[in-house]
Amino acid sequence: MKRKGLAVGIILLFVGAAIIPAIAQDIEKPSQSTSRGNWLYVGGSGPGNYSRIQDAINASSDGDTVFVYDDSSPYYEHLTINYTITLKGENKNTTIIDGNRTGNLIKNNANEVIITGFTIQNATIGIFSTTNRNQIFGNNILNNNQHGIYFHANHVDEIAATRNRIENNYISKNRLNGIEICVYEGYVFGSGSFNSIRDNILTENGCGIYIGVFCSGNLIYGNIIMSNQEEGINLDIFIHGLNRVVRNHIEQNGVGIRLYGPSFNIIRNNNIIQNSIDAIFLTFITRLYNLWIGNYWGRPYLAPKVIIGFREIPMFQPWADSIILPCIAFDIRPALKPYAIGVR
Question: What's the predicted TM-score (pTM) here?
Fold first, then answer.
């Protein structure tokens, strides 16, 4: 019996040793420790926690996580990321980074960065990046003077702004574009391409989603795009197309979908309803049409749905204006009822 009692006592001692640190971890928000050296903490009450997010980012290395508690929120900072890190907030509604109405709130210069769990607000641009394979998900991005999220490929000697994932964000009241992916300075094949924009809510921005100039192969899927002043989706592609706009709910925008110049885009199985103009396009005489199929246009259509657009015929003379003529496209098999997309 004594041996059994001793054994039980030893077991309880080990159990207590395991439980007490776990309870202490809940009471005191931890700081960086040797056992979790790849996690750096901002805010909270743990010894050694950083008070500024940028200080923790500067102390990080590739593969680290910077975890930001909401205790000291809002954080009035402008952040620059130069390492492949995860920047994670405690709660997207209460962990607030405020740009105080100036600058790029988060400027990302590294590939494969993860940004999640924040409210990012009141800057010129919420998140600015020129890099690849990043993930931005589970954030509120609000009230920025230009763009909410801006991926910009701007180097003529490299492929940039490719294979990024922008998912499950609430993006609202940004004055220009909620999300913009664009190649402005010099053409690089593959730049601004193969990005995924999925399951976001974009509302009350100037334009919901803007894909510009040389971008191609992007997927816009499952988004709720409502009450944006200008366009819900604007594909302003000069050379390449091959973008897919699939199963989005596009409602009460200035223009639901606007296409300029692109070809081979697929617009399929979307709800496009109650916009001032549901859809419009401008194409060139040498360009092929886009594929519109299976969209719901606010009521059942038993025949193909006509989409009004324009064709630009260039005049091959110096300073001569192009000729713009009306033309039409068709949704060849419009849906008879709306799709269940997201939670509205």
Answer: 0.86
**Containing structural domain, residue 270:** 146-344
| Tens digit of each residue's pLDDT (9 = 90 or more) over 7-25 | 434 334 333 444 333 333 3
Residues 193 and 292 in one domain: yes
Which helix (H) or strand (E) segment holds residue 235: the answer is: strand 231-237
DSSP β-ladder status, 65-68 and 170-172 = unpaired
Walking along the chain (344 residues) 10 residues at a time, the average pLDDT comes out as 41 39 40 58 90 98 97 97 98 98 96 98 97 97 98 69 96 98 67 91 98 88 98 83 93 96 86 97 76 96 95 77 88 97 70
* Total domains present in the chain: 2
Q: Which of 105, 132, 159 is the last residue of a domain?
A: 132
Q: Quick check: bond before 74 cis, omega within 30?
A: yes
The dihedral over CA atoms of 294, 199, 135, 102, expressed in degrees to the nearest 10, equals 110
**Alpha helix stretches (DSSP H) within the chain:** 2-27, 53-59
Domain boundary residue among 70, 100, 132?
A: 132
For residue 321, how far is the Cα from the chain centroid?
37
231 and 87 housed in the same domain = no
- Name the DSSP letter for residue 322: P
Q: Is the CB of residue 116 less than 8 Å from the CB of residue 136?
A: yes
* Strands 244-246 and 201-203, sheet pairing: unpaired
Q: Tell me the DSSP string of 140-173.
A: EEE--SSEEEEEEE--TTS--S-S-EEES-EEE-
Q: Is 27 helix (H, G, I), strand (E, B) or coil?
A: helix
Residue 330 within a domain? yes
